Amino acid sequence: MDNEKVQFIDDDETITLYDDDNQPMEFYEVAVVEYEGALYALLQPAEKVEGIEEDEVVIFRIEDNEDDEDSFFYPVDDDAIADAVFEEYLRAASDGECDGDCSGCPSAEECDSKKD
């Protein structure tokens, strides 16, 4: 995936999403990733959210509403898609910063910088 398909968001504005009980939750948008023709948002909680660690991101599929300016965010339940989107984000985030130590790197199999 080209880095043009990953847009990093460097903004302190929050996005308000609502849980199943219609309670608002604030998130920072970390990045938007285009994957297989769909857009995905990587969101980090702006405040404590039960079940989500402070340094964890959650991934949502973004769909624009044709009748409104708002977008809809749908949680990604498919682990394979979530992993692939996050891997694309990690690849773009580490572009040019690889030290060749591939332990734990999701892109290790495709890495050209592996240490022998």
Can you give a write-up of this model?
This protein has 116 residues and is mainly beta. The protein has one domain. Helix content is 13%, strand content 34%. The protein has one helix at residues 79-93; strands at 6-8, 14-18, 24-35, 38-45, 58-64, 71-75. Strands 1, 2, 3, 4, 5 and 6 form a six-stranded antiparallel sheet that branches. A hairpin with a 2-residue loop joins strand 3 and strand 4 (38-45). It starts with 5 loop residues before the first strand and ends in a 23-residue tail after the last helix. The mean pLDDT is 83.
List its traits.
single chain, 116 residues, mainly beta, six-stranded antiparallel β-sheet, 6 strands
List the helices and strands and how they pair.
Elements: E1 6-8, E2 14-18, E3 24-35, E4 38-45, E5 58-64, E6 71-75, H1 79-93
Antiparallel strand pairs: 1-3, 2-3, 3-4, 4-5, 5-6
Brief write-up:
This protein is mainly beta and 116 residues long.
